Amino acid sequence: MVPHVALTPKLLARPPAIYNAAYAIARVAITAARAGTHVVGRASADVVAPVALGFTGLGFAAVFFVVLHALAPASLNPLREPMSDYALADSVGWMFPVAVGFIAVGGAGATFGLARAGLLGTGWLRWAMTVIVISAIGTAVFPTDEGLPLSLTAEIHRYAAVTLFVAVPIAAMLAATARGHDAWLLATGLVATGLLVAFLLSHLAVMPQAMQDLRGLFQRVLVVVDLAILGRLCHAAHRAVSQDTTPGAGDTAAGAGDTGWEGRIGSVLPRVAG
After folding, report:
1. Please, are residues 47 and 119 in contact by the beta-carbon 8 Å criterion?
2. Domain, as residue range, for 74
3. Distance between CA 113 and CA 108 in Å, rounded?
4. Of 58, 97, 116, 201, whose CA is between 20 and 30 Å from 4?
């Protein structure tokens, strides 16, 4: 016999807002894909359209996060309160799942852009990017709630968010160390990892109170860094198609194809000489 799972009143009250957010995200995604197709032409639109979608999703995510914080009640302390708590704010809380949903759109755009540019491969980077998209969707769809013990939806939200925060720096370091080193991407991945560790430790009662009071700041900086990483991966796919469409790029692309995606991503991502 299947056990009965009771749905919280908060969850029952949220689906209309979630459906509206999903509809808005889908409309923006379609518009961005069409715009990319018309701007660059059909020959390279199979790569640039996903990249345009990725940049659009990340840009809208940043905008919604900023507006959410600007309009949130003054009782919410951004230095201490996790961003998930903003989803519980009256009138403006709907912006949080919309913003996270746009992260999923941005991650999907980066994933498809890298794949169509031949930079994604079939290994760990592909898995990391897939996890980013799925965990962002889970974080947006399953809301948190107030008080303890947490509901089933809040537990799913928590684990999906942590998975998202873990997967982004992993993807960054996998891409950066494919061949050669993208110093910026590698350093940013390490910074994201450090911020994630600080954010997780700030939830432990044994940590200094000053650190616990800055958990919100750690998380917000981490979100900014993660958005920058996904943007960098979109940029890598864009540079790949730009190089392939320049005169003489065909020979370079052919030579890179012999070494697989590891060789291509090492040449496409900008590197800083050591």
Report:
1. no
2. 14-244+261-268
3. 8
4. 97
